[in-house]
Amino acid sequence: MRKLIAIDFDGTILNSNHEISEENIRAIKKAMRQGHIVMILTGRQPESIREELAKYGLDLPFGANNGTEVYADGKLLERTALTPSQNKRVAFAVEEENVPYKISTNMGVFAPENWSGRLEKVLSSGRVPQEYLNDVNFEKMTQPPEKLGQTMFERIEEFLERKDLIALKYLILAFDPEQKSRLLRKLASIEEITITHSAPFNIEVMNRNGNKGNGLKVMANYYRIPLENTVAIGDEANDIAMFKTAGLAIAMGNASEEVRKAGDVVTLSNDENGVAYAIENFVLKD
To answer: With a threshold of 0.85, does the pTM exceed it?
Structure first.
């Protein structure tokens, strides 16, 4: 029975050194040799996914930006964007709070020109919990957009006026808990969107159908694999949508309690080759 195995990237297949272990690579290749389809389903950009997989000689289908873009066999299968109205309302909500944010689009990532200034202001405010600063995602998520080669804009209106841009996902850093709660209330008033997170201090906003669950459905349909024969492996709240969709949901040992409860079983942590353990013990032994 052929299965589709969807694996998250950060905190799941990548260990704390941001590497894919030999054990995980061997397990993935073993599953593929047995006829299963292995895909990556992550909040990362397509370019980042391709670059990371290429380091290890892996060529896998994937869902990027939390499943809003799904690729297989070198082609885009589906793209789920925010509507112009949703895009505008989300943009004005984050601008009103003056938080650092990035927008994933069909043409890469965009961010306000004063992104670093916004970040510095909140980090020096004295309102950021120490647990946020110690979080494993802190360093990765606070890399300035200019360092990553991302496009900057001076005013949000410049971005919104571009007819060639399709907004897929907003990645918002909300380090001030009070401000985060206020922003979440504003976003909750916007119809037909998905709000999730992949760290305690971030907010991710997509169209209602732009989530990892839908990304898994698209890939399963492409390969003609029934959803009951799909497997999802992840560690963060943005993985719960694919947990609800998959036939078998596997939470990483390093996952939060919320995610562990959403899974059917729990594997080892990302520093203990949890993906390899999950494939060997919950997929291939079935």
So the answer is: yes
